[in-house]
Amino acid sequence: MFDIPKTMRAIVYRGANDLRFETIPVPSIGPNELLVKVAVCGVCPTDIKKIHYGLVTPPRIFGHETAGTIVKIGGGKSKLAVRSHSSKTIFKVGDRVALHHHIPCMSCHFCRHRAFAQCATYKRTGITAGFEPAGGGYAEYVRVMPFVLPGVVKVPSKNTFEEAAMLEPLNTVLKAVNRLNLLRGDRVMVAGQGPIGLMFTRLLKLRGVNVLATDLLESRLKLAKKFGAKWTMNLTNKKSSADEFQKRAGTFDAAVIAVPSDDAVDQSLQLIRGGGQVLLFAHTKRATKPGQGRGGASSGYFPLDLASVCLDEKDLIGSYSADFTIQDEVARLIFSRQFDMRKLITHRFSLGKTAEAVALASHPTEDSLKIVVVRDP
């Protein structure tokens, strides 16, 4: 049905800030594995950090927000039955699919406590285009291993591959929203209105929550209004006082920190009422030295008034990565276009220009949001 070549083009990470457009073998697959022809792959900050800072050993092929078409099933099969968290799916050659590169074991200590991102199996990457598995979406074909098949989702004919590639990032945000103890009508501040912050704003709006969106760019605040923010505040060239926030939106029940800013955390702990929550989503840098990074960026160290946690019962919580058990809900949100992810995608780059896509995502402009790499014709 599909003419599969022996070689393909891929973007190979060869070291810090060293991405090369190379020709490599198409991955071979084993029994109960899928070979997927990549159509679209989103550019994710997680991969950008690894590329910029050389956090992993080369060579690797990054890209994990991936959608494409099944072109081969291992073991000579024409169909493959896969049991997901809630149902059974039959995959066949020609199916359009969204991929999911991390799946937990569901039986270890962490999984029993639903801390899936801490599971040893979850930490393994189950999709590769070659070399050490790293997602592989910046290539023409990827191999999907059996243990991550429960996260694969079929894409309806009415939806685009670009929408399908957004399942993974939206999953991470929905997982985080589920950690918040919120009621309809509550007030939440979302700090940062980049692609992730806008996802938070929209999901919270869909749950009947009143959102105050903050950012440094007026263009993003205007978009936040369209995504459902009730109030917006531009923080350019000033550190807004608690009084200014409360004049705008009153007291908050929670705050979501979608930018790696220590100041935003500090301010949020002052703004939320007793019993409220501050959720960290972007503080992924490990601690360096006390005091470094203050004034905006994060050092990993943070001075905390412990009485605000004990006496005021304020919770400081975090959320990292995805939860495949909510994949069906994420698919419904995107494929029904209740959450129209197409509005987030602003820039498209061909595979050969992936380095340019990464550069733009690293230094966003006023008109850039979600950036994707599309397969060359």
How is the topology of this model organized?
Elements: E1 7-15, E2 18-25, E3 34-42, H1 45-53, E4 65-73, E5 79-83, E6 88-92, E7 96-98, H2 109-112, E8 127-128, E9 141-144, E10 153-154, H3 161-165, H4 167-178, E11 187-191, H5 195-206, E12 210-215, H6 218-226, E13 231-234, H7 242-249, E14 252-257, H8 262-271, E15 272-280, H9 306-310, E16 315-318, H10 327-335, E17 345-350, H11 354-362, E18 370-374
Parallel strand pairs: 11-12, 11-14, 12-13, 14-15, 15-16, 17-18
Antiparallel strand pairs: 1-2, 3-4, 3-9, 3-18, 4-7, 5-6, 7-10, 8-9
Helix pairs in contact: 4-5, 4-10
Assembly form of the protein:
single chain
| CATH fold-level assignment of the largest domain | Quinone Oxidoreductase, Chain A, domain 1
Relative strand content: 25-35%
Give the SSE string.
EEEHEEEEHEEEHHEHEHEHEHEHEHEHE
Strand count, sense and closure of the main sheet?
Answer: 8 strands, mixed
How many structural domains in the coordinates?
A: 2
Question: Can you summarize this structure?
Answer:
With about 375 residues, the protein is of the alpha/beta class. Helix content is about 25%, strand content about 25%.
Distinctive features:
377 residues; alpha/beta; Quinone Oxidoreductase, Chain A, domain 1; 2 domains; 8-stranded mixed β-sheet; 6-stranded parallel β-sheet; 18 strands
Describe it.
The protein has two domains: 7-171 and 322-374, Quinone Oxidoreductase, Chain A, domain 1; 180-318, NAD(P)-binding Rossmann-like Domain (Rossmann fold, 3-Layer(aba) Sandwich), CATH 3.40.50. It contains eleven helices and 18 strands. It has helices at 45-53, 109-112, 161-165, 167-178, 195-206, 218-226, 242-249, 262-271, 306-310, 327-335, 354-362, and strands at residues 7-15, 18-25, 34-42, 65-73, 79-83, 88-92, 96-98, 127-128, 141-144, 153-154, 187-191, 210-215, 231-234, 252-257, 272-280, 315-318, 345-350, 370-374. The strands form four sheets. Strands 3, 4, 7, 8, 9, 10, 17 and 18 form an eight-stranded mixed β-sheet that branches. The protein starts with 6 loop residues before the first strand and ends with a strand. The model has no long low-confidence stretch (mean pLDDT 93).
